[in-house]
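Q: What does the assembly look like in three dimensions?
Context provided by user:
Components: two
Sequences:
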Amino acid sequence: EVQLVESGGGLVQPGGSLRLSCAASGFTFSSYWMSWVRQAPGKGLEWVANIKQDGSEKYYVDSVKGRFTISRDNAKNSLYLQMNSLRAEDTAVYYCARSYSSGWNYWGQGTLVTVSS
Amino acid sequence: QSALTQPASVSGSPGQSITISCTGTSSDVGGYNYVSWYQQHPGKAPKLMIYDVSNRPSGVSNRFSGSKSGNTASLTISGLQAEDEADYYCSSYTSSSPLFGGGTKLTVL
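A: Here is the predicted structure of the complete assembly.
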């Protein structure tokens, strides 16, 4: 059974940092592009970043470029999102998702990041 | 890039059919056959319902179907059931980054 389990969310002050993790199981992690998608409270979905199977390609939404870094450790079946210089508008549930053709067919349960003083 | 445009809400009675539209531009929806649709119940993670415009993942009911004409993609749900009440999001590949629609709340009357 495919499972994606996020962790690392919490309350952080503006300007602070947080590192999210996503533990994958039930599939060959190293064979898939992976993404982070977020959802602000009461709002819609927003793609944040994705990373190629071997980590050689990474892409970001404009609003997080230079502040967030996506990475993966295929030996540990894990996906990460390092978030620096956090802003109030980064407050959201962050989902880890496995790419499937043009979409994402497996999602984690999400981890809440709250940026507030 | 702006989000794709979806109606804020749609409604229908059990057994009826409804269609949710997703309008973009020639740079996203109209330029690629890479539109996907997601169902999200409150407090839950999104679930993939349609990918590549009209393909259903295994396990998704054939009551759900997708199509595209020009810059507008559509999700049709036939034989509406109470469990279909949820938020629905479209997404499209673009040359820069994937885009989502603003979401549509489906109410089953």
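Follow-up: The mean pLDDT of chain A is 97.
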